[in-house]
């Protein structure tokens, strides 16, 4: 019997691929949540017959209810509905695939309800890593990584408990602007930034890949997921995206996880763990790949990575400031209101903002507000 899941962010890139895996492996779906794509959420609800769906935009609740009026599916909305859906008693596993800090509170709600978490929402650990990991330990629930890199690290560590981990080698594609200089990036457009060489992802995460902020956030996630120091995480640019990450042990042996660049592999592993099953994706053909290359990241041209690493070293609320500022800056870039390079230049200024005090949900939300206000003041928009 497959364990039932609740899926937040069901209409996004990770969400739709998760449902591909659910179809292939016959996973029951207890709950679905989406931000605003009513038509797709309705189609998903009719196909998977969940007990409940959440449409996050409260102004769409009535029309969503009307769409599903002929079904037994319950429709809720807003943050309260998102948290309620995340903690549905019928589900054993929450797949959190929403984008942004909106993912933190439903993750905590699901942990409180004793659900295992398949985590694809970076911001949950970037902003609330200490809170989330402590709550997971107290409730005895597992945090199963869905990100391809963190899934790779997780897989490399299987069977090696008790062995000292020297280093995590976190691979990065380098994004669409690998090898470019700052001068060459002065006038790049959103369309250019959204042309990722290897992965098909949502707009926000694709821009984060272009700035290397996505890799910075993954470093922060790795620190929390694998209980290591920031200095133990090293970023390696690997353009082919065939090795998804590696770990180095005390004897300097390096274990790598490889596969085609398809998110359905790490998604399925999180859903079926510890079992492996045939996956609805292609096989890796090393003869077609030909060669694998590696390079150091350019943290001067792409300062977002350096800023994220410094934020986790500083700790406290600084990762929240960096994350929240980045969310606002990427949105402004996609709207054509700021140039590409201003993302990295502005987000680095968040490290000089004065923040202190205990890390709580309230302090995280206050730091988010402070960062977003600072961005608009700096950018003049």
Key words describing this protein structure:
globular; alpha/beta; 4-stranded mixed beta sheet; 7-stranded parallel beta sheet; single chain
Describe the structure.
The chain has 381 residues and is of the alpha/beta class. It is 45% helix and 14% strand. The protein is built from 16 helices and eleven strands. The strands form two sheets. The protein has a seven-stranded parallel β-sheet with strand order 4-3-2-1-5-6-7, with helices on both faces. It has a four-stranded mixed β-sheet with strand order 9-8-10-11, covered by helices on one side. Helix 6 links the parallel strand 6 and strand 7. Helix 4 runs parallel beside helix 5. The longest helix is centred in the C-terminal third of the chain and has 19 residues. The mean pLDDT is 95.
Mean pLDDT metric: 95
Our measurement of the CA-to-CA distance between the termini, rounded to an integer number of angstroms, reads: 53 Å
Helix content: 40-55%
Round the Cα radius of gyration to an integer and report it. 20 Å
Q: How many β-strand runs? A: 11
Strand content: 5-15%
Low-confidence regions: none
Q: What's the total helix number? A: 16
**SSE order, one letter for each helix or strand:** EHEHEHEHEHEHEHEHHHEEEHHHHHH
In the sheet with the most strands, the strands line up as 4-3-2-1-5-6-7
Q: How would you sum up this structure in a few lines?
A:
The protein has helices at residues 13-25, 38-48, 61-67, 78-86, 104-112, 122-139, 148-157, 190-193, 203-211, 213-225, 264-272, 286-289, 303-314, 318-334, 341-347, 361-379; strands at residues 5-8, 29-34, 52-55, 74-77, 93-96, 116-119, 143-145, 165-172, 233-237, 243-249, 254-258. It is α/β, with parallel strands linked by helices and 381 residues long.
């Amino acid at each position: 019997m497959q364990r039932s899941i609740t899926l937040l962010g069901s209409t996004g890139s990770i969400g739709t691929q998760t449902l591909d895996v659910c179809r292939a492996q016959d996973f029951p779906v207890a709950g679905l949540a989406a931000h605003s794509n009513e038509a797709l959420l309705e189609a998903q609800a009719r196909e998977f017959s969940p007990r409940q769906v959440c449409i996050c935009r409260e102004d769409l609740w009535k029309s969503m209810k009307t769409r599903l009026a002929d079904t037994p599916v319950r429709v809720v909305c807003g943050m309260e509905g998102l948290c309620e859906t995340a903690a549905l008693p019928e589900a054993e596993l929450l797949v959190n695939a929403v984008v942004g800090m909106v993912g933190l509170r439903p993750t905590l709600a699901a942990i409180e309800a004793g659900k295992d978490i398949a985590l694809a929402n970076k911001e949950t650990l970037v902003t609330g890593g200490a809170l989330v990991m402590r709550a997971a330990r107290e409730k005895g629930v597992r945090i199963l990584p869905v990100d391809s890199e963190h899934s790779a690290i997780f897989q490399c560590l299987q069977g090696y408990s008790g062995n000292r981990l020297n280093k995590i080698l976190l691979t990065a594609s380098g994004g669409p602007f690998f090898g470019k200089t700052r001068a060459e990036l002065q006038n790049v457009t959103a369309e250019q930034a959204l042309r990722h060489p290897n992965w098909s992802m949502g707009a926000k995460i694709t821009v984060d890949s272009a700035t290397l902020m996505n890799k910075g956030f993954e470093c922060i996630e790795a620190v929390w997921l694998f209980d290591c120091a920031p200095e133990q995480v090293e970023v390696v640019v690997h353009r082919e995206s065939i090795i998804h990450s590696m770990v180095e042990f005390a004897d300097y042996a390096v274990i790598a996880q490889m596969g085609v660049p398809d998110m359905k592999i790490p998604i399925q592993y999180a859903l079926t763990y510890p079992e492996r099953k045939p996956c609805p994706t292609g096989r890796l053909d090393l003869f077609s790949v030909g060669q694998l290359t590696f390079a150091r990241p350019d943290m001067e041209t792409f300062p977002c990575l350096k800023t994220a690493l410094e934020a986790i070293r500083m700790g406290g609320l600084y990762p929240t400031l960096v994350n929240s500022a980045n969310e606002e800056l990427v949105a402004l870039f996609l709207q054509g209101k700021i140039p590409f390079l201003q993302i990295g230049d502005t987000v680095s200024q968040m490290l000089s903002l004065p923040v202190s005090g205990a890390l709580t949900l309230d302090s995280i939300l206050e730091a988010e507000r402070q960062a977003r206000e600072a961005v608009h003041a700096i950018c003049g928009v």
